[in-house]
Amino acid sequence: MDWHKCAQSFIHIVEDQSFAKAARRLYSSSSALSKHISWLEEQLGVQLLRRTTRRLSLTAEGECFYQRAKQLLDDWADLKESIRNTYNQPVGILSIGISVVFGSLYIVPLLPELLEKFSRLKINVKTLNYPLLSNIDTLDLYFSHKSPDFFSDAMDHRMIAHTHLQIFAAPSYLAKHGTPITLADLQDHNCLLSMGHEHPNKWEFAGAAPITVQGNLIADNNSIAVKAATAGLGLLFTSPLALSPEQKKHLVPVLPNYHSPRWTIYAYYPKLKTLPLKTQAFLSYIEKKLEDTLPISE
C-alpha cells in the first residue's frame, strides 16, 4: 500500500461523505477505497471512521489525521507545481469542461496549435451543457456562463467574454408566419426553447419585462435548436457567439433593438495557492487567442 494514495482516498471519502462518490472521483471502486482505509487504520493503530448504513463520521483521531494529511498533500501538490513552474514546461493531463457549442466553435479549433506548442500536455475534454457541482469538481478548468454564485468557494474564476442573447429566425419562417414587430408579438409565434436557459419559456430582455413564450420544440442542446431554426421551424433566442459563420448565413436578426441582459462567460478553476502550470499555460493561450473574437469590453 501507498501512504499518499491511501491518504488521498481517506480525504475524498471524508469530503464526499460517501465511499461510492469518492470512488467515482478517483476512478476506483468502493471496495478498493475500503481497503485503503483499513490499511491506514492498521498502520496507525487507531480507528479513523465510524461507518453505519446511514452516515460516515470521523473519530477524534480521524479528524486530526484528516487535517494534517490534507495539509501535507496540499503542500506536496504545491511543491510539485512550484518545481514545474520553475522549469516552465506544462506537463500532464489537463481536464477541461466545455459546452458542445462553445467548445466546438472556439476551444477545439485552437487545440492543434496549442498541443504542438506544449508537446508534453494532454487534454481531456468533457462536454457539460448543464453543469452540476458534482461533475465539475474533478476538472482543472471549466468554461461557463453560470454566475460565480453557482459555484462553491473552492472555485476561482476570471472573465473570458461578454455576450447577449438575441432573436434569430430563418427567412423561410418569417415569410410563412410574418415578422414580429413588438415583443408582445413573440407570444403568437413558435419559439424554440432551450434547456440551456434557466427558464426556457421566459425570454428576458434588457429594459423590458420578460415575455412568456411557447413552442413545439424543447431542446437539451442549443445545437439542436439552432439547426431547427435554420430549417425554418421557429424563432431562436441565442447568443451570436453560438452561431457558426455558415449558420449565420441562414438566419436573420428579429427585433434587433432588443437583447437579453449581458451574459458573461467565465473560466472556472480550483482555488489553489499555486495554479498548476498546465492550467496557467492553457488559460493564457486561450485568452490571447480569443481576445479579438470574444471581447471583454462593455
Note down, in words, how this protein is organized.
This protein has 298 residues and is an alpha/beta fold. It has three domains: 3-85, Orthogonal Bundle (Arc Repressor Mutant, subunit A); 92-162 and 263-291, D-Maltodextrin-Binding Protein, domain 2 (3-Layer(aba) Sandwich); 163-262, 3-Layer(aba) Sandwich (D-Maltodextrin-Binding Protein, domain 2), CATH 3.40.190.10. Helix content is 39%, strand content 21%. The strands form four sheets. It has a five-stranded mixed sheet with strand order 4-3-5-14-6. It has a five-stranded mixed sheet with strand order 11-8-12-7-13. It has a two-stranded antiparallel sheet with strand order 1-2. It is elongated and about 80 Å long. The protein starts with a helix and ends in an 8-residue tail after the last helix. 28% of the residues are buried.
Summarize the structure.
Keywords: DNA-binding, Transcription, Transcription regulation. The protein has 11 helices and 14 strands.
Portion in helices: 25-40%
% residues in beta strands: 15-25%
Report the mean per-residue pLDDT as an integer: 86
Runs in which pLDDT lies below 50 for 5 or more consecutive residues are: none
Structural class: alpha/beta
Task: Report the CATH architecture of the largest domain.
Answer: 3-Layer(aba) Sandwich
Query: What is the number of domains?
Result: 3
Instruction: Count every helix, treating DSSP H or I runs of 4 or more residues as helices.
Output: 11
What is the number of strand segments?
Answer: 14
Please state the overall shape, judged from the principal axes of the Cα atoms. Answer: elongated
Supply Rg: 24 Å
Family: Belongs to the LysR transcriptional regulatory family.
Pfam families: HTH_1, LysR_substrate
Protein name: LysR family transcriptional regulator
Keywords: DNA-binding, Transcription, Transcription regulation
